[in-house]
Every structure is written in C-alpha cells, then in structure tokens.
Design goal:
This protein is an alpha+beta fold. The chain is built from 15 helices and seven strands.
Length: 493
C-alpha cells in the first residue's frame, strides 16, 4: 500500500502558469470531447425520432385519403370483375406515396389485392403477387406479426381492422408482402418496415403503406452528418476561447489570490461580526413587525427587554445559568415572545370587547405559531443559542407555574427559566399599557396583581425579585410611555 503515501503535489505538479493553463485546456478538451460525443448521440436519437414521426405522419395521411377516396366511389363491397372493382383498381394504381414507401391493399383475410410500386404503374405491378390480370384477388397472403406503435403490443395483421390509421412495425418484404414471425423465407428480402394501416368497412379492404427502415436510415445519416460537423466546430471554438481566456485570467488573478489569502482571516472575522449583527437586527425587526399589529406604541419591545434585563440581573447567583451572555440573549429573545400574533386575524387581535371562548382558543394559538416560525428558521441556519431561547420564550411565556397556562399546561420547573421571566415582564407591561380593550393601570395596581399571583401564575423566586426592584419598573414605564400613560390614567380616573 505504498501508493497511499504519494503526496498530492507529486501527482499534480501545477507549479507554473504554463502547467496550470495546460491542465485547464486538457480538462476542457475532455469535457468538450465528451460533450461532442453525447450531443452527437442525442442529436441522432432526436433526428431518428423526428424522421420516423414525419414519415409515419405523411404515410398515415396518404392511406387515410386513399381509404376515404375508395369508400366514396362505392356503395357496397366490390367484387372482382365488377365495374366498382375496376374503378377501385384504377384509383389505387394511380395513387402515389412519398419517397420509397410502398402501398399494398389487402382483403380482410390478408390476401394481397393490389400491390403497387413506388410510381404505382403497370410496370411495377408486373410479376407482383396478387396483381392478377383481369383484377382478380391476389394469390399471395400477407399476415405478419405487427408490433403496434407506440405501445408495443403484438398482433397479426389479419386481426387488425382499424377504422382510423394505426402505425406498427413488421417484417415486410421488398415485394410488399409480409410474413408471420417464424415463417421460412428469404431473409434478404425481408427487412423491418414501419406500416400505416387503415381498414375500409365499406370496401372490406386494408390499405397498408410500408416505409422500409432504409428510408429512415438515409434521412438520419444526412441530417446527423451536418449536426456532427457543427458540434465539432463549436467544440474547437470553445477550446480556443478556453486557451485565450485562461492565459488572461491567470495573469490577472495570480497576485490577487496571494493577497486574498493574507486577508482571509481578517475577512472571515469581519463577516462573522456582520452576520451576527444582521441576525440580531432581523430578529428584532421581525418582532417589531409583529408588535405593530396589536399595539399603538413603538416602545413595547424596548420595555419588555428592559424589564427582563432587570429581573435577570437581580437573579444572578440564584440561577447558575444566568450570566452576562445569557442576559444579552434573553433581552433579544424576549422581543420574539409575541411573534406568533402575525397569524391571528385582526378581528380577534384588535377586538375592543371581551373575546368569545372560540376567539380565545384561536388567540392562544399564537404561542405555537411563534414557536413553529422560529423552529423553521432554526432548521435553516442550524443550532443557535439565541434561536433556542427564542423558541422557549415564544412557546412558554403564557404558561403558569400552577399548570393552568397554555399551550401545554406546564408546571413550575417544567417551564424554561427564560419563559418564566418573560411571563412576569409581559404581564406587567400589559397591565400598565393602553390596549384597544382597556385603559392602562397604575403601577401600584399592577404590583398588587403580580403579588397576588405569586406561586400561581408566577415563579415565587422571580416574583420576589420583582417586588424588590419594582420601583425601577415604574421609572422605566414612565420613561418609555410618558404622556400616553398619563393621559390614559387621567381618562380612567
């Protein structure tokens, strides 16, 4: 296994501009060569299919017209020696098919009645089976096995009496007579042909146009030669452009690559910082968009972030997971708590009166909607501490420690710490803010309600932390709501 120790530079010594350009040209030559071969084969397949379809279409139209013409000149099935029979024979003998396609008219049982050649004159009819003097029925019988197109079903020609033109493949001799599969015969006179068959019920005759495979092969070769030539010329042009372009590009960019390598680490660090800033900005902007749907103030999210920061700072040392980085994540994650409200109709979200039980149930779905939205983002960007906390906040900020909250009726420690903190901050802000369905409460009223809900709605430890610093909440509320809150309190009084 000594070959495993061969190093990459020993296998590919691209140490000079010339060797690099040579490698590019060699690779491009292989690609162009493979493309030329593939394009040629694909073109031939396409041409073969198009030629076959066109010949079949022309032959089908021709025998369909012939069948219609024969049916139009007779009123009943013609019999040999009768005027109608002679008229049909004259019509068929004058009929011309395109190219090298031959025409044979058969009885229902497959007897050859009128075999004609390319020009369908009497010279071509001489010596043909079935072209009997006096217009009698032919002695030859044509009953080959047909392979119907495009389905591939097999059946005998005698069993096929189609009212509309049917196409099929079969062994069909130069004399215009087919044979059943397995019959003895001259293989040199039996080649595969494509048949177009139609049956006239009135005349009791089958009209068969047979196009030998040679017709398709000749047309294919003629068209494929042109395609091969032009594809080859295009490949040469591509190679020339590749050589010239490679020389120019290598000369211009070899020094840039070296300079970019020196700057790579610095650029990576800058992009990382910018990516985090963009992420945080988008997260907050998304939360802001949701917030504008159900509040008239632009400061709601700022207040929630400040309240959560105050509570978390007070709880440092009480919960070991709380540190500076955790608090910074909480500030941003708390802004995402009501993002799911974008999925709630305005008729419910902005309703000034009390919600009905059905409306209340629909309103409560905003927690799941918000969590699902954030989890979809997490699936795209991968695991992230901020998104993980945001999902917990969005899903669980309406849970209560006594298990009566929603959506999952979690109890006490089952509720994530971040969601328990946001729950108290959100309730305080809701109580002290103006909403479409209520005026703002005073700070003292909000503090009394939170104190009463200690141990039922709110975590006792977090509620105690709030009680210790609630004057600061009041100051922030006054600062970020100002005259709007004062006006609401005056109106309520």
């Amino acid at each position: 296994m000594q070959w495993c120790a061969i190093s990459y530079p020993m296998l590919f010594k691209l140490r000079s501009r010339g060797s690099f350009i040579a490698a590019i040209v060699l690779l491009q030559s292989v690609v162009v060569g493979l493309g030329w071969v593939g394009a040629t084969h694909a073109a031939r397949d396409g041409l073969r299919s198009r030629v076959r379809e066109r010949v079949i279409e022309e032959n089908s139209r021709a025998v369909s017209h012939l069948c219609a013409a024969v049916s139009s000149i007779i009123k009943e099935r013609p019999e040999p020696g009768k005027p109608a029979w002679e008229e049909v024979q004259r019509l068929v003998s004058r009929f011309t098919l395109p190219g090298s396609t031959s025409l044979v008219v058969l009885s229902e049982q497959g007897e050859v009645i009128f075999p004609t050649g390319r020009n369908n004159n009497e010279t071509h009819n001489e010596g043909r089976p079935g072209a009997r003097e006096g217009g009698g029925t032919g002695a030859g019988v044509s009953n080959p096995v047909l392979t119907l197109l495009p389905g591939g079903e097999k059946m005998l020609l005698s069993e096929l009496n189609p009212g509309a033109v049917v196409s099929a493949k079969a062994k069909w001799g130069a004399a215009g007579i087919g044979r059943a599969e397995g019959d003895a015969g001259d293989e040199g006179d039996q080649g595969e042909s494509v048949l177009s068959v139609v049956y006239s019920t009135r005349a009791g005759m089958k009209f068969v146009a047979a196009a030998p495979q040679a017709v398709f092969d000749a047309a294919e070769r003629e068209l494929a030669s042109d395609v091969t030539l032009w594809v080859g010329l295009a490949g040469v042009v591509v190679l020339c452009i590749t050589i010239g372009g490679s020389v120019v590009l290598v000369r211009r960019y070899d020094t840039i690559v070296m300079r970019m390598n020196r700057q790579l680490e610095q650029e990576a660090e800058r992009r990382t910082r910018r990516g985090l800033a963009i992420r945080n900005g988008l997260v907050f902007g998304l939360a802001k968009l949701a917030d504008y749907r159900d509040t008239d103030t632009g400061k709601h999210l700022e207040r929630i972030c400040r309240y959560c920061e105050l509570l978390a700072q007070k709880l440092v040392g009480v919960y070991p997971e709380i540190d500076k980085a955790w608090i910074e994540r909480l500030k941003l994650a708390s802004s995402m708590h009501d993002i799911g409200k974008v999925g709630i109709p305005d008729s419910i979200l902005l309703k000034p009166g009390k919600l009905t039980p059905e409306e209340r149930n629909q309103m409560e779905t905003h927690a799941v909607i918000g969590a699902d939205t954030l989890m979809a983002i997490r699936q795209r960007v991968g695991d992230d501490d901020l998104l993980n906390m945001s999902v917990q906040v969005a899903l669980c900020h309406h849970e209560k420690v006594d298990g009566t909250g929603y959506p999952n009726k979690l109890v006490a420690g089952q509720i994530p710490l971040c969601a328990r903190i946001v729950a108290l901050a959100d309730v305080y802000d809701a109580l002290t803010s103006v909403r479409v369905y209520k005026p703002a409460m005073s700070h003292a009223e909000a503090v009394a309600i939170i104190a009463k809900s200690r141990g039922t709605h709110f975590d006792p430890v977090i509620a105690d932390a709030f009680m210790a610093i609630h004057p600061t909440f009041d100051a922030i509320c006054e600062q970020l709501q100002g005259r709007e809150l004062a006006a609401s309190l005056r109106a309520a009084a």
